[in-house]
Known about the structure:
disordered N terminus, single chain, alpha/beta, two-stranded parallel sheet, 11% strand, seven-stranded mixed sheet, endoplasmic reticulum
Amino acid sequence: MTPSQDVDQHPPASQTAGERVEPPSPSDPIFPRSAPPSDHGIGTDSAGPSSAPTQDQPQSADASANASPNPSLRSRQQEAERAKKSNMIRCVASRSSHPHRPVFAPLSVPRSRRLQTLGVLFWALLLPISIALFFLILSVPLFWPIVIPYLIWIFFIDTAPESGGRRFPRVRKLAVFRYFAEYFPISMIKTTDLPPDRPYIFGYHPHGILGVAAVANLATDATEFPASFPGITPHLLTLATNFTIPIFRDVIMAMGICSVSRRSCESILRKGKGNAIAIVVGGASESLNARPGTADLTLKRRLGFIKIAIRNGADLVPVFSFGENDVYEQLSNEEGTKVYAIQKRFQSLFGFTLPIFHGRGVFNYSIGLMPYRHPIVSVVGRPIHVKKNPDPTKEEVEEVQKQYIDELMNIWDTWKDAYAANRTKELTIIA
Length: 431
């Protein structure tokens, strides 16, 4: 098998959407304790969302023959076979006599994988394409009678980003988002039911470089969320500055994305039962620590979303995405370096920062800005019930935060051997 081989397979789903998944048993042979190498996009086999981990070695033929007839277990065993093929490809690539030469994608890539790549390109280029399209329209005087009122509407009239957005279910169901999720693939596991008789705040961890699983799981219907949590309407939140960008703002609002301001949060939660907001808690600071094999979280000093939950009586639900930090490599930027100082200065000026990162390319597997094909599994934890209090005390906020962190650590400890077998360190709350 050569490094240029690219296999397209569609693994059967290992989890029926909507079913609660039990934590893996340490003795389960499909969850090895050995650490598989991170998939950097070379010949990966998975083509559809799956909640099963990648691993180095499949079971033997005898073990497979004696395996449980459970379809979930069989599908994971099949995925282990695919993982072995993928690992063989990576080993060949790593032993190349020219390690610094790029490994190019073959010309004969299956159509489904082309579509997955296009799905990721669509999301990655949506912002620059929106800006370019706007200036193209602006350059034509014939459109000025439309453009000028539109700009006035954006900056002075429209309050939708602060009041729930303009959600269009058909946009969330577009095939392009399904291809986007299948590229990695991205999947979601529910550990308990969430009754739609109250509002919720989903805390998403880690931020990663771009938070791709947050988009797939909470801003589209491409994964298991709609079937797993019927009656709950999620709104992924982002910086208010994104809603000043023409065209782009309207697309993300159609996906249900809203501003992360306090006014926006409370406006959505006050709509009542079944409404939920999703906050990527670590924010820009956490993205600077996103590296493969790690889970360094900025959480201890994040009390704003805890206060909002208490003031509105919204239950807190931690979500941890295994693999989010593994889809990009990041330039070393330890505290005290010039790179770190520049990034923090940029953050202080614009409210966000730009990690210096790289992944694979569109036509090569070695370098570029496309994310690596690495499975991301988002585990939704148990909710922390919050009693409504319009004026919470510091002690009350800290107690709720402690419960939240305990449940987040429980998710990590329960699932890390299954979905973070290639970790280089344990989950750490660094700030």
